[in-house]
Design brief:
This protein has 195 residues and is mainly β. It has a domain of 136 residues: Jelly Rolls (Sandwich). It is 7% helix and 49% strand. The strands form four sheets. A six-stranded antiparallel sheet has the order 1-2-3-12-7-10. A six-stranded mixed sheet has the order 13-6-11-8-9-16. The radius of gyration is 16 Å and the shape is globular. It starts with 5 loop residues before the first strand and ends with a strand.
């Protein structure tokens, strides 16, 4: 592995999408080793919370007809998947067709369909580790940290996904992001929703 394949997502970068952007957190939330579709990408999440919200990836929507599969190698997590409403040929970030939470553990896989956004959360006490088959174009401006096939701006605008994964009574739960105006279909994957 060369240094060009490694990216870290710092607390400073994550403030855009945290439930409480003013809260203190670890210096690094997660590490990415980009290999691309054939070699695979590896992501390692730190355990813990930031003001009660579990450590997560930044989250993004795929551009075009890109799909992706995550394979869970170690730990316990929650994958969040959502799809924006289309109005007049444009995506509306505050309105969702779908929000879905999926609890995952080592040995599981999660498929992200084209046109959907996704992020993954570490809800365990250890590192959480996945492999994925997302492509990487090392000719992009910032291919390792912010690859060109992904739209991070819609997630940043909404300060995260429709729900935050929070610790409640020692277990994961969902807490609504108040910036979302409409969610047409919700599947909480067995997780409770708290205020």
């Amino acid at each position: 592995m060369t240094v060009e394949h490694l990216a870290v997502r710092t607390h400073e970068k994550m403030k855009d999408v945290l439930m409480d952007p003013a809260a203190n957190g670890p210096d690094t939330h997660y590490y990415m080793i980009r290999g691309g579709k054939d070699v695979r990408n590896i992501t390692v999440w730190e355990p813990g919370t930031v003001a009660g919200e579990y450590i997560k990836t930044y989250g993004h929507y795929h551009i075009g007809q890109l799909d992706e599969t995550y394979w869970v190698l170690h730990g316990d997590g929650v994958a969040l998947i959502q799809k924006m409403v289309e109005e007049g040929g444009a995506s509306v970030p505050e309105k969702l067709e779908l929000f879905k939470a999926i609890q995952v553990k080592a040995g599981d896989s999660v498929y992200m369909a084209p046109g959907h956004g996704h992020l993954v959360v570490n809800v365990g006490k250890t590192y959480f580790v996945t492999a994925d088959d997302s492509p990487v174009d090392f000719g992009d401006k910032d291919p390792v940290s912010m690859p060109g096939h992904a739209d991070y701006e819609m997630v940043k605008k909404m300060r995260g996904f429709a729900y935050y994964v929070v610790e409640h009574e020692g277990k994961p739960a969902l807490k609504k992001n108040p910036l979302y105006a409409e969610i047409r279909t919700e599947d909480f994957g067995g997780l409770p929703v708290v205020d």
